[in-house]
Amino acid sequence: MSKSTARTRARQARERLRAERERAARRSRRKRQAAVSAGVVAALVTVVAGAVVVQSGRTADNRPVIAPAGATGDEKLVIPSGRADAPATLTVYEDPRCPGCAKFEHELHATINKLQDEGKLRVDYHILSFVDRIVSGKGSKYAANALAAAQNAGKFREYHDALYASPPPSEREDTFGDKQALLDLGRMVAGLDMVKFTAAVSEGTHDTWVKKVQQKFDRQTAVRATPAVFLKGKNLLEDPEHPLTPEQLTQLVEAESSRRTPGR
Question: Rounded mean pLDDT of 45-65?
Fold first, then answer.
């Protein structure tokens, strides 16, 4: 073997050894990085899990469900307004933060009140709170609790009208997330016991009831949006091209009243 051949082979052997060492070093670095990454992921999982537990602890409400006085239905989740024996019953699904609900109330609440006062119409209200989940906030929940507190004080209709007369500018504005705003509306209602109402709003007396109302709504599939207004099983707002007018509602209720009243 010539000297030049020997030197070439020696150089190649050194290069192979260096390459193998470099590969081994890279493998070692990858293992260390993988171990570090696994540790970081594990730490993050622990932190996230801890955050979920903490958040759950903050939001959990294990208080008993306190339905407002006069609530109806199998689980006492409906607030009735008007005479129980009225010939026509309107079933209304509303969320206090829903702009469409505020529009419906603005256009029709005077007619509804008139028909109730005449003894022709009863309204069953399902007070929902799902907007809080969609755009975040607490205004739907707080306002629903305030409505229940007003019902408990015998002033549901008056407070309901005051609340919908001062709606948030949009569902993204959490106006009712400030309990003071709800208390200010209460001061506009003549005869409302503000001491008891303030306590109920501040303490969230009916919060668990509000949650239960929403949970029951979540389990059904017939109503997909609010407002939803039913008379004899028909949604009167299902055709947005032909919105319900005060005149149409009056005619529908009058027709039902005529069928139920002997001699007419």
Answer: 48
